[in-house]
Amino acid sequence: MKETISKIRTEMNELADKTGSEAEKIAVSVKSSIKGIADDIKSMDLREDMHKLFEGIDDLAKKTGDGAKHLSSELGEQLDVLAEKINLGRNYDRANAGIDSLIDATGDEAAKITEDVMDVIKKIASSVKSVDIKEDVDKISNKVKELAQATGNEADDLASDLKLIVKKLLKKE
C-alpha cells in the first residue's frame, strides 16, 4: 500500500502543475487509485473521507500556482489520514478473520492463531494515538486467550464478544 500512496501523492503533485484536460485525466486516475485501496476495507465506512478527498482533487484540477501547491499539500495530509484508517481497517479485518478461525481451532493451530490475533491487536493499539486503549487491549488479550481454550457455543459467544470489543476500540480513535 505504501507504493500506492506514494504514487497517488506523486500524481497529486503532478496535478498541481497541470491544467485542462490533462489535469482532468490525472484527477480521474488519482480518484480511481484512492477508491481502489479504500474499497478493500469492509469493516469501516470510508465514503465520507473519500468524498472529501475527491472534492479537493476536483478543485485541485482547476487551480494553478501557489493555490494549487497549497491545496496539494492539504490533500496530502488528508491522504495520510485516509491511509491510516485503511491500515486500521485492514488490521481490524485480519483480527476478525483470526477470531473466526480460532473458534474451531485446537492445539498448535489455536496457539498460532492466538499469536497472530495478538500481533494484529498490538498493531491496532499502536496505530491509535488519540486515546489510551491499554485497558481495552488487555481485555481483548484475555478474551483471545479464553477463546483459544473454548469450544462450541462458548467459543461462538466469546468470538462475538471479542468482535464487539475490537469494533468499539476502532470507534474510540
How would you describe the overall organization of this protein?
The protein is 86% helix and 0% strand. Helix 3 (47-62) runs antiparallel to helix 4 (65-104). It starts with a helix and ends with a helix. 27% of the residues are buried. The longest helix is centred in the middle third of the chain and has 40 residues, at 65-104. The chain has seven helices and no strands. By secondary structure, it is mostly helical.
Q: Care to count the β-strands?
A: 0
Distance between the termini: 21 Å
The Cα radius of gyration reads: 20 Å
Task: List SSEs in N-to-C order.
Answer: HHHHHHH
Average residue-wise pLDDT: 86
* Tally of alpha and pi helices: 7
Q: Which oligomerization state do the chains in this entry correspond to?
A: single chain
Biggest sheet, in brief? none
Briefly note the structural class of the backbone: mainly alpha
Morphology call:
elongated
Which percent band covers the strand fraction? under 5%
**Percentage of helical residues?**
over 70%
| Contiguous runs where pLDDT drops below 50 for at least 5 residues | none
